Amino acid sequence: MLLISVYKNNMTIGMYISLVTASFNLVEQMAWNLSKIMQKYSKNKIYLNDLSTFSNLEEIEGADLLPSVKTRQIPLESIEFKNVYFAYPGTDRYILNGLSMKLEKGKQYAFVGKNGAGKTTITKLLTGLYDNYEGDILINEKNIRSYKLEEIKAMFSIVYQDFARYDISLKDNIILGRVEEIENDEKNDILVKDILCNIELKDDVDKLPKGINTILGKTIEGSVDLSGGQWQKIAIGRCLASNAPVYILDEPTASLDPIMESEIYKLFGDISKGKLTILITHRLGAAKLADEILVVDNGIISEYGKHNDLVNKKGIYSHMFESQRSWYNE
Ligand code: ADP
Fold it and tell me: Measured in angstroms, how far is the CA atom of residue 136 from the centroid of ligand 1?
């Protein structure tokens, strides 16, 4: 078509060449971009599937209520699992197979066992995240199903492996643990500084440009990112702010070096004196300090007792301990 215009002297040869080159470029661009767009589209479609599954979930009444000051005062005496069976919804593999145990106020417990044994699952049931279990879960001898979700929230404070790192100020990162009772700024500052001393972060925070008001993370201009160990301590600080009667620490991620990891365990042990604490760990050196160790295996508590008793029993725990012996100087 263009050649006809050139032939009739309606277009110069220069213009002809530019238009042909531009057309080829356009075709190439479109083909290239189209495949990129299709790739993006298919990826986003998968995200959207998740999003629509999420938004179609049934809303549980009261799930978004925060504990009141009154609910925070409910004392916790005991937690009991009686013959609990549990499989995650949509699966038929039982993770808990008739698990029974009793935990009491003021004691430090360690859950140990192989990866995937069901240790974290126990804490999920304990905090009311799943309801489709068989058997009984009792808190203060009362069925957990009879508690309101806000009461359960008030009782437990958990530092999960994949705890959140909020890109907000350091102070707010900690105060979130007690968001329903946000006091005036002055009182918050005192509380946060006190917590920072307990989690041994005060010196590090004093060096930050805006102290406790420094925004954390990588996304906001002027913010400061922390190391893995410091973030872990902040998550523990949030746990402290909640002042819940039960603290649970799921084993720190592999991103921590062994020295920092044992420091975190020690710190957690120190700050939670007088509370019922559950420490989930594969490092038996940390478990050794607990009042009672519970070995989770095949969905039940297969052994329990103090470190020395379990070592002498020559069962799973002693086997695990033998294989880790070289990690510790006995
Ligand atoms: P542990 O804490 O002892 O390492 P977990 O309690 O995290 O073990 O997991 C126990 C088992 O449950 C694992 O086999 C895991 O793959 C499975 N599991 C964990 N979460 C889910 C889930 N949301 N849906 C299905 N299976 C899960």
Answer: 20
